[in-house]
Design goal:
Uridine Diphospho-n-acetylenolpyruvylglucosamine Reductase, domain 2, Uridine Diphospho-n-acetylenolpyruvylglucosamine Reductase, domain 3, Uridine Diphospho-n-acetylenolpyruvylglucosamine Reductase, domain 1, 3 domains, binds flavin-adenine dinucleotide
């Protein structure tokens, strides 16, 4: 029996795939995708499965699990550390190594699950950093053209939790990612107030890399945001919804005490977690199924054991509708939904 998508994802929902291929080197990865494309078989790339919700009917094609490995580095005092990481490398191993080698720029991204190759897909971010700050280039296999392509950072279409790779998900297979990191034992300026407070520094100050990593991991663990098999609050996709980015008119409708952060093009980002809590959806809330809002973070929808994708999506729809009824704002899912959708409002 091939593994089900529940076995391959951190939310642990999703039925069987028609076929599962584990690609341990780049040639196998490209071959698996090319073979599927040549026969008209749908192919789904899965790294750590930490940003995927797959429907209960499973996947009617080939799931290609990306397990490619390899890290190469060059460094000099002018350019810093140039670190090229194969797509299948676990992301947090990359961060741990960067901290140990005194390469600054990803320390606040400690503890994010999944693969290095998926980090540019949704431009992962946390605690004031995002990979767009340090990605130098992304090398891909272009399924439409059948050739390898290299995108420099400026061509990656990075935005808040998005990129050209997320916008056109079928097309790009990320093969490796090159990061350019600063050589320093101290972090980039700490931009996130909660992290600065935990470190005992002012916002904008720097701190030793190892201390930043330890503080981020502690903050994340307290919110169920570091994977732990024994903790159902971590059986999730992390944040289920993105933080809404509002224009002037939308921002004007927010209550005075709602969080407001500057966003590109003069827009305003607010906190989805705040909206959810103020809509009366408490931590631990459920509709009576084994899917429930995390007991540690209102933005994570979790599987308490035996939940189906339909259970999670019904809960997600209820949260979305409660926020919409209260604030007129429609929350958008952050993970990739495959073979399933939120029930209509
Ligand atoms: C507990 C928890 C905490 C989290 N915290 C954060 C956080 O703080 N910040 C944040 O941004 N995210 C967070 N996430 C979400 C998730 O960890 C990230 O989005 C991560 O980068 C996904 O990596 P993955 O390898 O698991 O991707 P997957 O879930 O396997 O895939 C995600 C998408 O990327 C595609 N994909 C995967 N690999 C490739 C590839 N090589 N080439 C092309 N496409 C590919 C998939 O097809 C899919 O569409 C969290 C998730 C969990 C479970």
């Amino acid at each position: 029996m091939p593994p089900t998508l529940a076995d391959l994802t951190t939310l642990r929902v999703g039925g069987a795939a028609r076929e599962v291929v584990v690609a341990e080197d780049e040639a196998a990865l490209v071959y698996a995708v090319r073979r599927a494309d040549a026969t008209g078989t749908p192919a789904l790339l899965v790294g750590g499965g930490s940003n995927l919700v797959v429907g209960d009917d499973g996947y009617p094609g080939t799931v290609v699990v990306v397990r490619t490995r390899g890290v190469s580095t060059e460094s000099d005092t002018c350019g810093g550390a140039w670190v090229t990481v194969a797509a299948g490398e676990p992301w947090d191993d990359v961060v741990a190594r960067a901290v140990a080698e005194e390469w600054a720029g990803v320390e606040a991204l400690s503890g994010i699950p999944g693969s290095a190759g998926a980090t540019p897909v949704q431009n992962v971010g946390a605690y004031g950093q995002e990979v767009a700050d340090v990605v130098a280039r992304v090398r891909t296999f272009d399924r439409a053209a059948g050739v390898q392509r290299t995108f420099m950072a400026a061509d990656c279409g990075f935005g808040y939790r998005t990129s050209r790779f997320k916008a056109d998900p079928w097309r790009h297979v990320v093969l490796d990612v090159s990061f350019q990191l600063r050589l320093s034992p101290t972090s980039e300026p700490v931009r996130y107030a909660e992290l600065a407070h935990a470190l005992g520094v002012d916002v904008g100050a720097r701190a030793p890399l190892a201390e930043v990593r330890a503080a981020v991991l502690a903050l994340r663990r307290a919110k169920g945001m570091v994977l732990d098999d024994a903790d159902h609050d971590t059986w999730s996709v992390g944040s289920f919804f993105t933080n809404p980015v509002l224009d002037d008119a939308g921002a004007a409708t927010l209550p005075a005490d709602a969080p407001r952060y500057p966003a590109p093009a003069g827009r305003v980002k607010t906190s989805a977690a705040w909206l959810i809590e103020r809509s009366g959806v408490g931590r631990g809330h459920s509709l009576g199924s084994p899917a429930a809002v995390s007991t540690k973070h209102s933005l994570a929808l979790t599987n308490r054991g035996g939940a189906s994708a339909a259970d999670v999506l019904a809960l997600a729809a209820e949260v979305r509708d409660r926020v919409h009824d209260r604030f007129g704002i429609t929350l958008e899912p952050e993970p990739t939904l495959v073979g399933c959708a939120l029930p209509p409002a």
